[in-house]
Specification:
With about 200 residues, the protein is an alpha/beta fold. It contains 6 helices and 7 strands; from the N terminus they run ααβαββαβαβαββ. The longest helix has 22 residues. The structure holds S-adenosylmethionine. The site of S-adenosylmethionine (SAM) has 23 residues, from α3 and β2.
């Protein structure tokens, strides 16, 4: 049975975004001012493309964005030359080395999520593995002072990930946007102001 179109889905269609998830990012942008004109952004799990489209609209002519997903994007508005899309798996070494070459980034976003299986526990575990990988990529590609947003399904073991983010950033916190469905276990972890650790030579 087809799900009835909710308020945010309708709004996304009216505003020419491919997915309702854009309003979660908009809320985080309003609250934390993550995006600024001229920045370079990495969007992990970027399809169908509403976060990328939202960012590109705000980054201006000097900004740029790299999107990665297993699936192709489905933009409603042409993304332009400042957009680069890599089709592939964020766990593959080919993708991670390309991301390093294309960086460093001011902002790393990850809305990546596993296909839902019907088991909350399995989905939470899959989402946590993806979120750890996103944090690892961020730690290797962010500029000092850069920011991170990463989606995670709450399932009991995500506290350790938040502690890891706290160890890498000046500030870390969880945030559940209003546009996130009430029944959804998803939440977002934010790392604000990346403090790159300088390796001390022995
Ligand atoms: C909720 S959607 C992202 C929606 C996107 N932020 C938008 O606004 O259009 C989650 C995406 O994560 C992607 N994904 C899941 N696992 C991935 C992986 N290992 N590597 C790359 N993409 C992945 C899925 O293919 C899916 O397109």
């Amino acid at each position: 049975m087809k799900r009835a179109e909710d308020y945010y889905s309708k709004l996304a269609r009216l505003k020419d975004f491919p997915a309702r998830s854009v309003f979660k990012l908009e809320e985080m942008q309003d609250r934390f001012a993550l995006l600024k004109a001229g920045q370079k952004v990495l969007d992990l799990g970027s399809a169908p493309g509403s976060w990328s489209q939202f960012c590109l609209q705000r980054l201006g002519p000097k900004g740029s964005l790299v999107g990665v997903d297993l699936e192709p994007a489905n933009f409603k508005v042409l993304p332009g030359p400042k957009y680069r899309f890599l089709k592939g798996d964020i766990f593959s070494s080919e993708i991670t080395s390309s991301l390093r070459e294309l960086g460093p980034y001011d902002l790393v976003l990850s809305d990546a999520a596993p296909r839902t299986s019907g088991s909350g526990l399995v989905d939470a575990q899959g989402s946590l593995e993806i979120a750890w990988q996103a944090v690892e990529i961020a730690a290797n590609t962010l500029k000092p002072g850069g920011n991170l947003v990463v989606k995670v399904f709450q399932g009991g073991e995500e506290g350790q990930l938040l502690r890891q983010i706290k160890s890498l950033f000046r500030r870390a916190r969880a945030f559940k946007p209003k546009a996130s469905r009430n029944k959804s276990r998803e939440t977002y972890f934010l790392g604000l102001y990346f403090e790159a650790k300088v390796e001390k030579k022995a």
